[in-house]
Amino acid sequence: MTASADRRPPAGAPENPLDLLIVGAGISGIDLAHHVRNAFPHWSWEVHDAQDDLGGTWHTFRYPGIRSDSDMATFGFPFRPWPHSSTLGQGEEIKEYIRDTARECGVLERLHLGSWIRNADWHGEKGLWKVTSVRTENGTTSERTVWTRRLHFGAGYYSHSAGFRPDFPGEEAFAGEIIHPQHWPENVEYAGRKFIVIGSGATAVTLVPALEQLGAEVTMLQRTPSYVAPLPEKDIISAVWKRVLPTQAAYRAARFTHGARDMAQYIVAQRFPWAFKQGLRTLQGRYISRAQINEHFTPSYKPWDQRVCKAPDGDIFRAIQRGARVVTGHIDTFTERGIRLRSGVELEADVIVSATGLELEAFGGGTLSIDGRELKPEDLTTYRGMMLGGVPNLSFTVGYVNASWTLRADMVSRYMVKLWRAGEKNGEKIYAPIPPQEKGDRPLLDLDAGYVRRGVHKFPRQGTARPWTYVQNYLAEIPELTFGDQRRDMAFDAQIPQEAVR
């Protein structure tokens, strides 16, 4: 090492800024890190995550049976085939898959765990982001300031520190234990104990068969039914492609086939809901009676107004066959022994699980500002669902809500890499979408789910037309994000209007 290299300021100092800081070490952040490592081997970059380990969702959630609710052919990284034969991935398997990928692309050497990004402030004069990282270790809080040319949030859209937990009437009277799936305790006893799972979404649909397999007496208590679709436990599509194509080509073909199938199902569900419902009822009828389907698995809303839950090999229906119960009704009050419904029926429980959803959180719960002026996310307009109008050198990942998150996350990563490559080629250091004249009022997450309705006001809005919108359609976005004009409605360096960055 030369003397001049010894005197160089540390990476992240204002005189030696990072080229990129990635917030989030889950699927989105690791996907982007892989592409950055390959495209810019000369860059200085770091990954920060507020949790004490990488994995994102797959580190936060540890309840029994935790699994993906998208097939792993599309939920996995497109550049690293899912190594298992299962259609859905188990939580621990997914976390180790993320860790292996992070190790391969050099993230582990650049990973800062327990690092919460409290604020990111764009300094227009320097053309840099000043990022404040907060760490708490052994009761001691410390701060670190990191300067970076580009900032990307791959931290998802919900709070990892707290799930949504309503106050239930009379809950103080309950003599047993109340658990939220986001904070599952260790050493829970299952065999012979009575569990009530409140909820009807993917978490509840996953927990019920898992708890039943562990020997618990399980009741799923839902206010309204959800659509639950049985699917093969083994990934038949991937298996077929592997027979006729080499491994990597087979993985790409399976990924596209799964993605196209899901989009086709979504279109059918939205345009011809009667056909989707009938097909689903036929599949469910292999396991449970028509009366059970009518009472507990026939929602009042259209398919895909909320996510359709997945049941590999119909596991929740098999659990019902073996004695698990589904009760549809409204809670009147908790009692000492369980829950009393408005109908007067009382359900006994030793443990009540509040599978009541997420708390939404934009940009990891931190704040954004420009030259010290704090930005309100809800006042900003998204550009292609990955940048913000008038905000320089900032991007973020939002996946699909009606299909696999990673399908879109990887397209966002590739899009940003192409934008950064063009910037280096053209000598452009600063980029920002020019804010549209007309602000839209469409939410960023366009899904009629309870957790979205509660918190979507915290997020930027979509505009009225492309590129200020993003559509929930993988097939429609492939040409736009892969081949679209990346300079459309964008400004660079001196072209950026000053009012956009004040």
From TrEMBL:
Swiss-Prot/TrEMBL cofactor(s):
FAD
Q: Which Gene3D superfamilies match?
A: FAD/NAD(P)-binding domain
PANTHER family the UniProt entry points to: MONOOXYGENASE, PUTATIVE (AFU_ORTHOLOGUE AFUA_8G02570)-RELATED (PTHR43872:SF1)
Q: What is this protein called?
A: Monooxygenase
Q: Give the record's keywords alphabetically.
A: FAD, Flavoprotein, Monooxygenase, Oxidoreductase
Q: What's an example of a GO molecular-function annotation for this chain?
A: flavin adenine dinucleotide binding
Record family assignment: Belongs to the FAD-binding monooxygenase family.
The record's annotation in InterPro entries points to: FAD-binding_MO, FAD/NAD-bd_sf, Flavin_mOase-like
